[in-house]
Structure formats: C-alpha cells, structure tokens
Amino acid sequence: MPNHGSDHPRPPGRLPLLGDALSLRRDPLGFLESLRGLADLAELRIGPQRVYLPTTAALTNAVLTEQARHFHKGAQFEKLRPVIGDGLASAEGRAHRRQRALVQPAFHRSRFPAYLQVAARTTAERTDTWQDGRTLEMDRQMYRLAAAIGTRILYHSHLDDGSEAVIDDAGLTVVRGIGKRVTAPFGLAERLPTRANRRYRTAVVSLHEVVSHIVKARRDDGHDHQDLLSVLLYSHDRATGDRLTDRQVHDEVITMLGGATESTAVSLSWTLYELARHPDVEARVVEELDTALGTRDITVDDLDALPVLRRVVDETLRLEGPAWMLTRRVAEAVDVGGRTLPAGTALWYSPYLLHHDPAAFPDPHRFDPDRWLTARRGTDAAGLFIPFGAGIRACIGESLARAELLVVLATLLQRWRFHLVPGTRVRKVAGFVLSPSNLPMTVTRRPR
Fold first, then answer.
1. What is d(CA 149, CA 159) in angstroms, rounded to the nearest whole number?
2. pLDDT in tens, 162-191
3. Which of 320, 412, 414 has the alpha carbon at shortest distance from 136?
4. Considering only CA atoms, which of 215, 211, 220, 126 is closest in space to residue 163?
5. Quick one: which H or E segment has residue 230?
6. Is there a contact between 352 and 56 (Cβ–Cβ < 8 Å)?
7. Tell me: the pLDDT tens digits for 251-271?
8. Which residues face 430 on adjacent strands?
C-alpha cells in the first residue's frame, strides 16, 4: 500500500474542500516559502487532489536526476500539449531521447556566433526607433523583441509583415493564455465561451497556420539556409538515418517560439527593472561595457569580458527566474523522501523556493549580484541554482539563452537608460512564468 500517512504536517491556511488551492491562488510565492521547514516533502491538497513538493535542494535534485526515469512531465505539459504538440518539451521516454538527439545540433556552440549576431542586430534595429524620453510598457516591448529575435534566429529569410505580425500578436495571446490555463487548479474557466477564450483559440489556430506555412515553404525550397529551422529539417541520426518529420519540426518551432520567447522576455524585463532600482549596479555594468566594447556592437567573443553583467543576469534569474514552479507526474511507483508515491501522483518542484533559501542565499530577497563572486558564494551553487532545470530534462537551450540575454542587454544598455515611472508598483505575477504585473519605463538615449 502507498504510504500516504495522515500525520503529514499541514501547510498554513488549509481549508475544507479547497485545501491549499486558495492560499496558492492568493499568494503563490508566499505560500511556497511557508512550506520551507514544514517537511522535506510537503503534501499539498488542491481540492481533492494530493500534490507533493520537495522543499530541499537534495530531494529536488534527486527527483530531477537519479530518479528522473520514474517521472513524466506532469500537468503543465499535459495542458500545453494541445498547443505545442509532441515537441521536445512534452515528449516522454524514448521519444524524448530521440528528439533531443535530433534537436541538439541546433544548439551546438559553433552556431552561436550567427544566432547572437541576429540577436544584436535585431535589438539595435527594434530599439533605435524608440523616441528619447518616451515612456514604454517595457514588458510588452521585451516580449516583441524576444519574439522577433527568436523568429529571425529560427528563420533567417525575411518573413512577410503578416507572418511577423501573427507571431508577435497571436504569440503573445497564446503564451499568456497558456499561463492562465496551466495555473488554473480545476480547468473550468478555460472552457467557458468568453471573449478571452475565443481570442485565445483563434490565436492558437493562426499561430499554427503560420508555422505550418513556414515549415512547408522551407521544405519545398530544399536549401540549407544555415538557420535553426534548416538544422531541424536536415538533422539526422547517424546510426539510423532518422529525421524529424514535418509535424515534429512544426511542434519544435511552436515550442521554441512560445516557451523561449516568454522566458527571454520576462528575464530581460526583470533585469532592466532591477538595474533601474539599483543605479549603482547599472553604472558598473555600463562602465564594463564601455571598457570592453567602446562604441562597437557586441560579438560572441566579448561575452567572457562581461563578468559584472553575467552576475547581474544570474542574480535576476535567482530572484525572478521565469520557471518558478514546474510539474512532474509519477510514471511508476517511487520512493521520494521516505514516502512511496504511486503511479499517477502529481509532484511539483520549485526553483523559486530553492533560490530563496536563506541558508544557501543569505538575505535572499535582496538583489546582490556580487553574491556570485567565487569568494563570497560560500557554498557550491550546484543543485541550489536551477533556473533552467536539471538532469535529462534540463533546458536544451540553456547556453544559448544565457548568451542571448547578455548580448541583448549589452546592446540595450549601450544605447539607453531605463527609468521606472515614479509611483509604479510592480508585482510578481506567478503564471506559467514569473512575470512583472506591469513595467512602464521611460527611456533616455545614451550618447555613443
């Protein structure tokens, strides 16, 4: 018999029938932090459902690494599958291993110079049209910038304006709609015939149509354009000769445009927010950029010369990393922290909880990039810092994502200063990703 035990410590605020759902809904991040010290494996109740959540780095990493074969991706990705299909993010078991091997060449470091040149050029083009002294909704600006970069890395050939507009507009609607659906505890609101739900469904159809058109056109073209889409289309398994089908390529493109765009956008937004709140750190970053780059644009060869900016990015990923909570589902009975969890059991894990552990990161809610200096870190961050996951399911694009953040931020900060609008209160919104509630910022041009 599975060991569910009735004496498991109860999280504060549990209610009859609803269990912990209301606490999680009202203050998800505060609720997570209330679990620290409750038990190494916290038992939550979301309505009638039991959910288990490891609260320590050791147990979390055991789930993600040596016990990974006992778990499927879970509820988040079950809800994502109607949108992203069977791409790498949602594939399981043997299919996941096969697809990862076929997709891996797209993220080989030899391709980074071309990808990052696109990122720098697109950032300059998109932001050079800003007006000095204008106030912009920076979270939306960063989404559109990240979407444009992702699209151009994927597809170097020029897209017509209509296709770019669909990826910009429909993509934003889909990503934010996914966030609401993934975090809804009972899945009822998404079935209602509301205007927002109709708009979401229309956007999903439009996005799939555009991506299908792009994949078909490139397949019909028959040439290797040295972009990410070409890698996906022509990558093959050397032992078997297997290639990704057009449908699988389509699903990988949707996955990359959706997840990568939103994660990049919110990471950029939060970094600009933290730098605006900490002008002393911003000044250090700008001085570093001036020393390393002068007035020229950044290249991949410059990344090692930007340790301050790199620490700023790491500290932002720790404080406000996109992946605040992720799901797993037990595939076959497994012992986790001394409890036997039967197949089908829901398990969540939280990078946010680990990243705000005061034992690992003193004064954890303070923005302090210098905590990442080797001399000050005091403990090995391996297993404590997992903004891109860990184990066989770790984000395949982590190295590229980190490099892209550095390149885009360097390009932005060489050209602009970012000022928070006085009186603006920016909240952390824990949806599919951890995003700012709003981010109005005034931009002023830097002399070059």
1. 12
2. 777 777 777 777 776 766 666 555 566 667
3. 412
4. 211
5. helix 228-234
6. no
7. 888 888 776 788 999 999 999
8. 434
